[in-house]
């Protein structure tokens, strides 16, 4: 029986690793449950991703990030223009280039900085959120409240990609040795970009593979405070994931607890060491908690019912 549990954990770990290439199924993604107990949508057992996954346009409401990154939705989202002077949105068929206005401003600001870096015309932007946020039919556990952005690691050499090219082009991996180290595609410009992204007050945290975090820890010779927001995580070697804090005035938006104090470099190095020399598996602590199944509308903040039903 212990053996089956162990195999189950290994399978689960493999599933997480495999899915992280296109998604961000992370414990760090799990924010606190909605602070306000939902009454309005109690008993609404519709599966939330099947409600939000097909809504093609933003809600006609005041802009509002609602709930947590992994249990929420967004009202009054805006669409990142498909092409701008220093960015292109990728995979337009997914219709995930929607976010809160603050998030779209952030992307445009960061892309302007990126365009100053040698070899970078700007940024290729991956998934943001669905038009009304919420859980997705495929991929991410987070990206629900209009405050998460996936940014490709591939330096854009042109910003006139056609719709079809944006479906076909792939980003490139930056890792070797299962993420313990960066590979030869990783450059100082990547580090300058991530430093600028993390140094912005709007940023809560950034997810990137552990070898990249250690590379930045070793590279930075000045102020190290920005490293606090760089969080080593599984996957995240084709893109990095920026998570913004709740916009001022969004009263139902739930921030995550800030990262632990300090630059986090020792923890990242430990993670790398464990990749290179895996420790023996921890003894099983018993039966894993039963899955709660897909998020239902009843488990989202009650405002999300209005967001889904709005014009
Ligand atoms: Zn992401």
Give an account of the 3D structure.
- This protein has 311 residues and is an alpha+beta fold.
- It has one domain (2-309): Muramoyl-pentapeptide Carboxypeptidase, domain 2 (2-Layer Sandwich), CATH 3.30.1380.10.
- 27% of the residues lie in helices and 15% in strands.
- It has helices at 2-19, 48-52, 101-114, 163-168, 188-199, 210-219, 265-276, 303-309, and strands at 64-68, 71-75, 78-79, 83-84, 87-89, 98-99, 123-125, 148-152, 175-176, 181-182, 203-208, 230-232, 239-244.
- The protein has a 4-stranded mixed beta sheet with strand order 8-13-11-12, with helices on one face.
- α6 packs across α7 (265-276).
- The chain binds zinc ion.
- Zinc ion is lined by residues 24, 140, 143, 148, 150, 241.
List its salient traits.
311 residues, alpha+beta, Muramoyl-pentapeptide Carboxypeptidase, domain 2, four-stranded mixed β-sheet, three-stranded mixed β-sheet, 8 helices, 13 strands, globular, binds zinc ion
């Amino acid at each position: 029986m212990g053996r089956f549990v162990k195999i189950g954990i290994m399978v689960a770990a493999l599933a997480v690793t495999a899915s992280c290439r296109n998604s961000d199924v992370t414990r760090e993604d799990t924010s606190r449950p909605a602070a306000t107990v939902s009454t309005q949508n109690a008993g609404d057992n519709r599966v939330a991703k099947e409600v939000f996954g097909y809504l093609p346009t933003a809600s006609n409401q005041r802009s509002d990030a609602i709930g947590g990154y992994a249990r929420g939705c967004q009202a009054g989202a805006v669409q990142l223009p498909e092409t701008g002077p220093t960015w292109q949105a990728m995979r337009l068929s997914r219709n995930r280039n929607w976010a809160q206005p603050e998030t779209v401003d952030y992307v445009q600001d960061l892309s302007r900085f990126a365009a100053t870096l040698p070899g970078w015309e700007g940024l290729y932007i991956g998934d943001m959120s669905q038009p009304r946020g919420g859980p997705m039919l495929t991929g991410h556990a987070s990206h629900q409240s209009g405050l998460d952005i996936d940014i490709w690691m591939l330096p854009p050499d042109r910003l006139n990609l056609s719709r079809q090219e944006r479906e076909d082009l792939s980003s490139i991996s930056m890792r070797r040795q299962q993420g313990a180290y960066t590979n030869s595609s990783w450059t100082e410009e990547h580090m300058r970009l991530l430093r600028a992204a993390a140094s912005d007050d709007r940023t809560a945290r950034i997810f990137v593979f552990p070898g990249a975090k250690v590379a930045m820890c070793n590279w930075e010779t000045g102020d190290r405070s920005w490293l606090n927001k760089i969080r080593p995580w599984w996957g995240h070697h084709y893109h990095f994931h920026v998570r913004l804090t709740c916009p001022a005035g969004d009263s139902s938006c739930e921030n995550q607890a800030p990262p632990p104090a300090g630059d986090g470099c020792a923890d990242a190095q430990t993670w790398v060491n464990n990749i290179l020399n895996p420790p023996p598996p921890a003894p099983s602590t018993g039966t894993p908690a039963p899955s709660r199944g897909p998020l239902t509308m009843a488990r989202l903040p009650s405002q999300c019912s209005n967001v889904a039903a709005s014009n």
